[in-house]
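Hi C.,

You asked whether I'd gotten around to modeling the 393-residue construct. I have! Everything is below, sequence then structure, no commentary in between.
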Amino acid sequence: MKENKFETIAIRTQAERTRQREHSVPLYLTSSFTFDSAQQGAAIFNGAQEGNLYSRFSNPNTSEFIQKLCLLSGYEDGVSTSSGMSAVYTSLVAFLEAGDHIVASKNSFGNTLYIVKNIIPKMGVDYTLVEVDDNQAWEKAIQANTKLIYLETPSNPTLKIADLDFISKLCKTHGVLSIVDNCFATPYLQKPSTFGIDLSIHSATKYMDGQGRVLGGVILGTKEHVKKCYEFIRRTGACLSPFNAWILSKSLETLAIRMDRHCENAFTIAQWLQDQGQVHGVTYPFLPTSPQYELAKKQMKLGGGMVAFQLNGGEKAAHHFLNSLQLHSLTANLGDSRSIATHPASTTHSKLSLEDQQAAGINPNFIRLSVGLENVNDLIDDLDQAIKNAKPQ
């Protein structure tokens, strides 16, 4: 039988139809599920029979969401979580114990770095931070007790790219678990499974939802690895609600067409920004001027919906620019149908010290754009007037 393409899988993968013969999958808003007999209840609890017990464990809506993502991502199994950060936290602590060491990218989301630097050390776990695009640093950082490597690619917010083929081979050589946050790329643009990455995680809150409505997270990998994450979530409660799973699964039906438009708009805006005298350091993976252009083209279908740049005039200019925007939203979210401008130094990465921000490439004049689905000329007009207003008088 012919294998269906991404868009068809995203639309046609659904939970089993009920006796009501519904065309759209219903919401299963129930905390628990009944048994036909005491024997069946015992069999489901001890794993001898498959079935839903309790929505903290599984639910038809969360199961459909995960089944769909496994098919789209090329992974064997998966588990959903209450948010992207619960996916990050679970993917780390489900595998770590006192005496372990991890190597993580310093070019990561602020809260991820907080977990690495402030939470897991309390568990007796040591860490080393490296630049996400420095292959020699990754290799040099591995120690005898290194348990896993963790990174984002493209990274948040600097959009640096990791060489997934190199990372995968490095981890396999040393018997180390590889974990990649694939949130910015989504399974449509990048499949870490293709390169042999053990676990791929997502904040489903972002592009998977695509409209800024619900929170959710995902961990995808082998059955063996996902089972460890599932057992942790089952007992600690960071599960995805059926309602959010229903929203997210329906949203995946339009992920491909949305990402095509996000990428088209973002590429156009990145090219335009390069010609603006008040702007420097424009970063977008698919710009031919990018030092990682060839690697990005090798790993990604398109360049994504995120653009980063710096404004001449420092933090004051950045604030003037943000306050002058009329069409772009000012919020810390991303991956929305509505375009968003963010100042990472004072929001998403504000918990980092100034030294750590600069080490991660986040300067006071650094702007992150999540390019939405609006008409790109309207977006450029808004950016143009805001940049002019930010120009020192």
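If it helps when you're writing up: The longest strand covers residues 146-152.

Thanks,
B.
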